[in-house]
Amino acid sequence: MMSGGVDSSVAAYLLKEQGHDVVGVHMVHLDGEDTSTVEKVAKRLGIDLKVYDVRKQFREKVIRYFVEEYRKGRTPNPCYFCNRWIKFGVLLDMMKDLNFDAVSSGHYARVRDGKLYRALDEKKDQSYFLSSLPRDLLRRLILPLGDLEKERVREIARSLGMEPREESQDVCFLKGKNLKEFLREQGLEAGRGKFVDRQGNVLGEHEGYFYFTIGQRRGLGVSLGRRVYVTKILPERNEVVLGDKEGVMSRFMEVSSLNFLEDLPGSFEAFVKIRSNFKAQKCFVRIEGDLARVEFDGEAFAVTPGQIAVFYIDDQVVLSGTIERGYNMVESF
Description:
The structure is a single chain. This protein is α+β, with helices and mostly antiparallel strands. It has three domains: 6-174, HUPs (Rossmann fold, 3-Layer(aba) Sandwich), CATH 3.40.50; 190-243, SH3 type barrels (Roll); 250-332, Beta Barrel (Elongation Factor Tu (Ef-tu), domain 3), CATH 2.40.30. It has eight helices and 16 strands. A six-stranded antiparallel β-barrel has the order 11-14-13-12-15-16. The two termini are 42 Å apart.
């Protein structure tokens, strides 16, 4: 899978150096996308390039999911699902059509014997986002950058005549727009609503509940003379509940839509990340059907419905799923 950027280009180069027969695959996700850079890279590397138009699937699956999660008062993670539904989904179909032996990308993670592990470069590790992939795909996935530091990848890119560019951290389809503007374009408008406290007392007004996320403190547009956080979102009332930090600390959480990357017992200890930039926290997990009930070692800040929980044992990714809720009452566990 090639984007035309440094990481995927270096991955393709390394695979070719290792003696693999490499074919580049580029996916056009958005209108007006320029393919000239990836075409130049493929030509420079001397590999064939296939361009797939996935704009329709991307709109119908990823963007629709993104908007609907906000409509429900949740906070989506489009990159996690895009990897499974679009990027690697297309590669898997291509493998079947063209009889390829394996697929590859420029992600920073490691795969060994069909198991997913953190990358050597912890700052660039992307195992969190790859945890959505099915186990049968992991057995046929090669990740050449997993054992390399980012600076080494940049050095290889320069040796190929490529100048590393600034990497965007934004959601790709926002295209420089802010979230409010994008959601309005998608027809998501609720009108003005209320900020309330836990008892229901009105604290102020907002422009729509879907512009907020659990744990948010900045950009609330209301001044109460003390530090407050979003502790709950009530879409049916167009209300956003504000409270102190204690109100966004959770001892427990529930995780659904489980993706098992390893055979696991009914209960086990692990470390969990509840956001991509969240430091993994020790926890105890109990599996009940398609639900994981999780007890943190201590408390976790801003357990956010709609976000992704990824579980690690040592460096191996063993399980992932969608966060349904966080709470502090042991009776609910």
